[in-house]
């Protein structure tokens, strides 16, 4: 079996090899296409991550309000709903069902719907981690904030959440890496990300090994970059005795 890595230098239209491997004058090579697909993958992942962090932090915090049982139940319902429905099913619901129920959503591009589905799905997992992080703190920290005259908001803002987020950095690292891998389901609604590129390029070139090896490498690079960034963040904010050293470096 011989490998032909020049497949990435071929023009996607006439299959002629382009010397620089990058198309000119409107021509597109498979390398151009793959890098563009990688950009879509990173865009979907990062936007969904921001949404998941904001919603997950909010829902996870609300689930620890001891004197607000109704809010706690609503937070629990959010987690159970989005965590227990498979991601691919959620994407199809956002793409096909929700626009039918709410016509205003029909004009929303598939890219945005995938970001919403992936962000909501991941937010349920992050909410559980935030809740666990807050509940892992000594109860005295909450009482100390109250004794200083802090409101509930101030107690969470200045006392509980800064410590809780330091504790949950390792599982957050795993979720951040997972969101890049889970973005591959976007191909189901025709978002031109890496998995869709791999499927179409393999069919057009009959060079599946080369195509999938290259795409796998890009996924690995993306996940490794996130891993290293989170490991750096953990090292800078670590409080001795609160987080196991090196946990974000791949222990989860």
From TrEMBL:
Residues 38-230 form the ABC transmembrane type-1 domain. Its main location: membrane. It holds the Pfam family BPD_transp_1. It comes from the Bacteria. Keywords: Cell membrane, Membrane, Transmembrane, Transmembrane helix, Transport. CDD domains: TM_PBP2 (cd06261). It is a multi-pass membrane protein. GO terms for molecular function: transmembrane transporter activity. The keyword Manganese does not apply. GO terms for cellular component: ATP-binding cassette (ABC) transporter complex. InterPro entries: AA_ABC_transptr_permease_3TM, ArtM/GltK/GlnP/TcyL/YhdX-like, MetI-like, MetI-like_sf. PANTHER family: GLUTAMATE_ASPARTATE IMPORT PERMEASE PROTEIN GLTJ, MEMBRANE COMPONENT OF AMINO ACID ABC TRANSPORTER. This is Glutamate ABC transporter permease. It comes from Acidovorax kalamii. The lineage of its organism: Bacteria, Pseudomonadati, Pseudomonadota, Betaproteobacteria, Burkholderiales.
